[in-house]
Amino acid sequence: MRSIWRGAVSFGLVSIGVKLYSATEDKDIRFHQVHATDGGRVKYKRVCSIDGEEVEYSDIAKGYELPDGQVVILTDEDFEDLPLSTRREIEVLQFVDQDEIDPIMFEKTYYLEPDGPAARPYVLLREALENAGQVAITKIAIRQRESLAALRIIDGVLVLHTMRWPDEIRTPDFGFLDEDISVRPQELKMAEALIASMTGEFDPSEFTDDYREAMTALLEAKQSGGEVQQVPEVPDSGAAVVDLMSALRRSVGGFQPWGAWFPRNSLSVRVCRERRFASSSCGSRFGSSSRKAATQLGSTPTTWTPAWMWGRKTSSIRRQNSRAASSIP
Predict the structure, then answer these.
(1) DSSP secondary-structure letter at 101?
(2) What is the dihedral of CA 24, 27, 32, 38, to 10 degrees?
(3) Do 135 and 150 meet the contact criterion of CB atoms below 8 Å apart?
(4) In whole angstroms, what is the distance from residue 154 CA to residue 157 CA?
(5) Does the N-terminal or the C-terminal CB of the chain have fewer CB atoms within 10 Å?
(6) CA–CA distance, 177 with 206 (Å, rounded to integer)
């Protein structure tokens, strides 16, 4: 395992150096988005919604949109300057009985390992928690987010459960809760008898992920039956650029469907996906719902034009495209 956080548990005047490890891992079968006809991987680009240019990852910052539409841009330095004492410290706030914590508040689980010479105070805290039969309520900041957390013992290891804040727990607002619904005593007795007949000791190893097993069997069957797409290795050359003559012929032959966005004076075809990031250079927002298919007719960036404006310029654009096509041998 690889540690994802390093700091100290602050327990009174005692400081215990620890490393944090994820206690769980996903076993889901992961799929890639591919082209249905040839199995090629679908790639996305980060494109600025204002100037239409591809944005390097180093130029991307986090943006918070205000109610009036303005964007507040925050850089990595802004986050580093936040006055959080819990960035490198797990601060013990109090000790409580575990049954006082509703499981709905639990979020993620982590293992704590003593760091270097901290093994002795680590064991001291572990033994004290076990003898008291309680859990420690703490605060910790992980990945630019501060959380409440419960610290307890499992198999001789300190385990940290991050928790939701109270205002993050939704209140159920269902209509039937206000209705006066009654059940007959006979029905209640039969339901209780059914519960009693199904009561047993919980052993998670007795349960299986039927969906994952069925999906694994399906993939193995397709592989053994030869239903596998051989994908040729294609070097990554950045933006997909088409042949000049092909681009001009497509431009002269017709236009893209309504709803697409086109840049004027362009030659290369790019398929892009905007994401909800903000560019530190222009402060624009990347929307996750829009994809732009564009045909560029030049090497310099130009203004993006929505499809609904093209109806007014159809005649002039066709004349320009015809002259451009006729000038190429």
Answers:
(1) S
(2) 160
(3) yes
(4) 5
(5) C
(6) 35
Question: Could you tell me the domains of the chain?
Answer: 5-25+67-168 (2.40.290.10), 244-326 (no CATH)
CA angle 101, 102, 103 (to 5 degrees): 110
- Classify residue 189 by burial, with Cβ atoms within 10 Å: 0-12, 13-18, 19+: exposed
Alpha-carbon span 157 to 49, nearest angstrom: 49
Which residue intervals of 49-166 are DSSP H helices?
A: 76-80, 119-132
Where does residue 152 fall: left (phi above 0), alpha (psi -120 to 50 degrees), or beta otherwise?
beta
pLDDT digits (tens, 9 = 90+) for 32-69: 888 888 888 888 889 998 898 999 988 888 999 999 98
If 0-12 CB within 10 Å is exposed, 13-18 middle and 19+ buried, where does residue 36 land? exposed
pLDDT of residue 115: 93
Output DSSP code: residue 206. Answer: G
The tokens describing 58, both together, are 């180093």
* Tens-digit pLDDT profile for residues 224-258: 887 776 766 766 655 444 455 565 566 555 544 44
Among 44, 38, 35, 19, which Cα is nearest to 292's?
Answer: 44
Place of tokens 């300057």: 81
Question: What tokens were used for 165?
Answer: 């804040």
pLDDT, one tens digit per residue, over 165-218 is 999 999 999 999 999 999 999 999 999 999 999 999 999 999 999 989 898 888
Distance, CA of 238 to CA of 272 (rounded, Å): 12
Q: In terms of Cα–Cα distance, which of 285, 283, 302, 286 is closest to 294?
A: 302
| pTM check: above 0.85 | no
Residue 259 is encoded by which pair of tokens? 């709803």
**Beta carbons of 108 and 4 less than 8 angstroms apart:** no
How many other β-carbons are positioned within 10 Å of the β-carbon of residue 54? 14
